[in-house]
């Protein structure tokens, strides 16, 4: 993400407003307190409690903000490692080895650099809006200030620009004649699961498309939240 200091500060503040709106952590989101990494961990836990589960969050220790930076950097490594895995497994995008995940440990854990904190915030936005729980976050962000929505859209675009799509191996296609159809009580054949899923996605897309300027901001960025799931 190539932005100057002022832009970094502004975008960081917008993403912190969004993060506070989630109510996933009671910890301060002030840069000095964020240095321990625990607050970011709690937000990730709230975003996807199956992946960032209780066992996981227990390993992200709560350190005092003035603790030795090398100790706090342990949490940062846990966060970045798990985020890389989450993007690979559930977003199907590669962030490992990219500038997106290149967070300076000392600048983050000791200096509380906004620039380095912003990198983590952007990755967390991506986990929310591109991950498997994305629908509830799209619905939630639409009630926030348009300026905040624009910041979220900018973060998502940064992920798209800075990561690579991971190719997913296509499943083996079984000829229709080899599949026994589901039968309705009246003896007819039910709609296939793929058709049902397609219908739900279509309805969801129509619903989300009505949700104000956030959707329009994404459209302007030539990006659809749900297109990345396909």
UniProtKB/TrEMBL annotation:
Any GO BP annotation: cytoskeleton-dependent intracellular transport
A molecular-function term among this protein's GO annotations: microtubule binding
Keywords: Coiled coil, Cytoplasm, Cytoskeleton, Microtubule
Keyword DNA-binding among UniProt keywords: no
SUPFAM superfamilies: Hook domain
InterPro entries, sorted: CH_dom_sf, HOOK_N
Sequence ranges assigned to domain HOOK N-terminal in this UniProt record: 11-157
Subcellular location(s) of the protein: Cytoplasm, Cytoskeleton
Major localization listed first in the record, in broad terms: cytoplasm
One Gene Ontology term, aspect cellular component: centrosome
Pfam families (UniProt xref): HOOK_N
Domain of life: Eukaryota
TM segment ranges: none
PANTHER family on file: HOOK PROTEINS (PTHR18947), PROTEIN HOOK (PTHR18947:SF39)
UniProt family annotation: Belongs to the hook family.
Name under which the protein is recorded: HOOK N-terminal domain-containing protein
Record organism: Strongylus vulgaris (Blood worm)
């Amino acid at each position: 993400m190539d932005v100057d200091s002022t832009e970094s500060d502004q975008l960081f503040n917008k993403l912190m407003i969004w993060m506070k709106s989630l109510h996933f952590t009671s910890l301060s989101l002030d840069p000095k307190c964020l240095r321990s990494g625990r607050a970011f961990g709690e937000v990730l836990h709230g975003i996807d409690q199956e992946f960032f589960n209780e066992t996981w969050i227990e390993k992200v220790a709560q350190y005092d903000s003035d603790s030795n930076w090398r100790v706090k950097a342990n949490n940062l490594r846990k966060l970045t490692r798990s985020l890389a895995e989450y993007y690979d497994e559930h977003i199907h995008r590669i962030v490992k080895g990219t500038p997106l995940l290149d967070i300076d440990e000392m600048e983050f854990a000791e200096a509380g650099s906004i620039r380095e904190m912003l990198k983590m915030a952007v990755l967390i936005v991506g986990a929310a809006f591109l991950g498997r729980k994305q629908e509830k976050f799209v619905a939630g962000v639409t009630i926030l200030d348009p300026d905040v929505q624009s910041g979220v859209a900018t973060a998502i675009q940064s992920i798209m620009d800075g990561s690579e799509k991971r190719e997913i191996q296509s499943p083996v296609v079984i000829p229709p004649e080899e599949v026994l159809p589901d039968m309705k009580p009246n003896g007819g054949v039910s709609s296939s699961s793929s058709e049902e899923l397609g219908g739900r996605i279509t309805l969801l897309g129509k619903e989300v498309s009505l949700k104000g300027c956030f959707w329009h901001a994404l459209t302007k960025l030539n990006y659809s939240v749900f297109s990345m799931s396909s």
